[in-house]
Fold this sequence. Notes:
The chain has helices at 24-43, 53-87, 90-105, 108-124, 127-132, 134-140, 144-169, 172-180, 185-215, 227-238, 242-269. It contains eleven helices and no strands. By secondary structure, it is mainly α. The protein has one domain: MetI-like fold, CATH 1.10.3720.10.
Amino acid sequence: MGDTQTVTVITTEDVPRRPNWFLPHRIFLVVAFAGLIALAAATMRWDWIAQYQGQLLAGVGRTLALLVSSAAMGFVFAVMLGLVQVTGPKPLAWLAAGFCGIIRGTPILLQLWLLYYGLGSILSQYPEFRKEYPEIFYYVRQAWPYGFLALTISFAAYEGEVMRGAFAGVPRGELEAAKAYGMGRWKTFRRIWLPRAIQRALPTLSGETVLQLKATPLVATITVVDVYGVISRVRQATFLTYEPLLLLALIYMVLTGMLVAVFRYFENKIPVKG
């Protein structure tokens, strides 16, 4: 008998396609964007950048620190909120759903001001608290903890609903198979349920993280000097309007592109069933 040969047929759908940058509309957009940059560089004032370079870099650093810390902590809470809504018990599920509904139904700027001007003012009115807990009082008097807290609970509420759907969307057969293999609840959650839910939620998580980046300028309203706060100071000191705002737009576009590239990298690492 002859040897049995296995032939694997690879269709064009199985091969990842590289984007074709030589399409007419893409060439037009690239040329138009390059022309706008050249026009702005030739006709506008940019001599102030050298003077504020250090402050701009520090502002970008604060923006990234707020984004990464609030998104990371918010995602941890989002996993808890999504899981409790799926598994119960019902009282905790109702509380989690109510929390997500209230936070999602109110503007983040309102939440930020309530925390900073409300909670911060209440805690500073008690001298006993200042005397007994001076280390905690130091942070209570700062603005950035309230910005971090507001961004964190906002991200947790929005992503909590996403994770609820992701947990509920994992096929029950996979969880039953893990149970049949003798895995405990924690091991099943850690090895099967959570990774599969994150895979399902990853594209939405990418969009929510970009929205979180665009929400960080709100902290400038409570005296946190992020990159938007630095640009505001530049406008006040130089009496320029368009140049600082155009630079700010470029900075956010670059940061957004970096975020999208990172999430796209992880999305491409996820195996897709044929």
